[in-house]
Amino acid sequence: MGQNEQEQAAEPSQRAVVYVRISDDPEGGECGVDRQEADCRAYAAAHGWEITAVFRENDTSAFKQRTITLPSGERVRRVIRPQFRAMLTHLADGQAQVMIAYDLDRAVRDPRDLEDLIDAKVLAGFTVRSVTGSLRLDTDSDVAMASQMQVQAVWPAVVDEDTWQQVMDVLDARKQARKGLMQERVKLSPTPASAP
Q1: Which of these, 1, 37, 39, 152, has the minimum number of CB atoms within 10 Å of its CB?
Q2: C-alpha–C-alpha distance, residues 135 and 129, integer Å
Q3: 138: which DSSP letter?
Q4: What percent helix, strand, coil does the chain show, rounded to 5?
Q5: What is d(CA 63, CA 173) in angstroms, rounded to the nearest whole number?
Q6: In what order do the strands lie in the sheet with 127-130?
Q7: Mean pLDDT of the chain
């Protein structure tokens, strides 16, 4: 019995929530979140999970931070995602046992959000899945992989275009230097006919 079959057999009547998000929808058509939701619903149906709530954040960045003032008076930088926070509360309260997102980067882009999802999952014991398979938090390896993938997902957003081009130029220069060294080694190595 494969892992997916074991999951389906072990969890046929669990309640699930769906989280969908798209960063940019200037026309407000919600086509992106609609597609994600349809895929998440199909994924839940394939596992026999009942969807009890859908948390939608259309035209909402999961990376851009704003300055806010906490109840303590402290000013901090945070990503504002009310539906993501509502979903974590819903899961922490035990109202569902499974969280489904389309992909890791639809659920989390900010490291703090990933840590909050991990903490909520550990404390409440719910399952975390994605349609694409990029998001699981069952083992330490899953958590480490999610952390690495989250960093890779935000890297292009963190660096400006000039910095990115500088990095690419340095990598290209190193590649060309290695290529030049390899060509010199070939020239310097004796050929079988000229070897003594």
Answers
A1: 1
A2: 5
A3: S
A4: 50, 20, 30
A5: 32
A6: 50-58, 15-22, 98-101, 127-130
A7: 81
Question: What is the SS3 assignment for 10?
Answer: helix
- pTM beyond 0.85: the answer is no
- For the chain, the farthest-separated pair of C-alpha atoms sits apart, in whole angstroms, at 83
| Superfamily the domain 3-158 falls into | Resolvase, N-terminal catalytic domain (3.40.50.1390)
Angstrom distance (rounded) from CA 117 to CA 88: 7
How far is residue 48's CA from residue 5's CA, in Å, rounded to a whole number? 11
Q: Residue 131 pLDDT more than 50? A: yes
CB of 95 closer than 8 Å to CB of 53: yes
Ranges 63-77, 121-135, 179-193: which has the least confidence: 179-193
* CA–CA distance, 49 with 27 (Å, rounded to integer): 33
Could you tell me the two tokens for 111? 């490291």
Question: Rounded distance, CA 142 to CA 121, Å?
Answer: 13
CA 89 to CA 96: how far, in whole Å?
A: 10
* Segments making up each domain of the chain, as ranges: 3-158, 159-190
% of the chain at pLDDT higher than 70 = 70
DSSP state of 48: T
